[in-house]
């Protein structure tokens, strides 16, 4: 999906997000972070980021630096720059990509997934899983009643329009 909406600087939203992604990846690399995972989950018209975790080059989990701030170009024309804590910037990046690609993911049965940010490779991978309700028909044929009498296999509409009635023979 390409968003050609213009920001205050005149750049497209796609260009602004690419610029912000580069700033965030640079801040993560500077903090010694090699991989970040962002898990999300939602249904019933609400969804949330469940957790954000970071790993170093040795694949050891490390905390995101809480004092590191990142100044991102704003998509809001009333504010040219937004300042975020690094973790909040990562979360905002995930929200943007999630809604660009799966708007409404949190509705009805919802969805869940994981973003993986590969910092040295400068890539973002998303594994998105949609939930849905399924139904399976279970036809039942009542050709013979339990007492051996015949039961019609097709119901018919009774005298009241729309009322479903089965004609069952009287027990012997």
Give the topology.
Elements: H1 13-30, E1 35-43, E2 46-55, E3 61-62, E4 69-73, E5 81-85, H2 86-102, E6 111-118, E7 123-130, E8 156-157, E9 164-165
Antiparallel strand pairs: 1-2, 1-6, 2-3, 4-5, 6-7, 8-9
Helix pairs in contact: 1-2
How would you sum up this structure, described in words?
The protein has 172 residues and is of the alpha+beta class. It has a domain of 118 residues. 20% of the residues lie in helices and 30% in strands. It contains two helices and nine strands. The protein has a five-stranded antiparallel sheet with strand order 3-2-1-6-7, covered by helices on one side. A hairpin with a 5-residue loop joins strand 2 and strand 3. Helix 1 packs antiparallel against helix 2. The longest helix is centred in the first third of the chain and has 18 residues. The N terminus is likely disordered.
Mean pLDDT: 83
Identify the overall geometry. elongated
Compute the number of strand runs.
Answer: 9
Gyration radius over CA: 28 Å
How much beta, percentage-wise? Answer: 25-35%
Name the poorly predicted regions. Answer: 1-10
* Category from helices, strands and their pairing: alpha+beta
Going across the biggest sheet, name each strand in turn: 3-2-1-6-7
Distance between the termini: 70 Å
Order of helices and strands: HEEEEEHEEEE
Helix content range of the residues, please? 10-25%
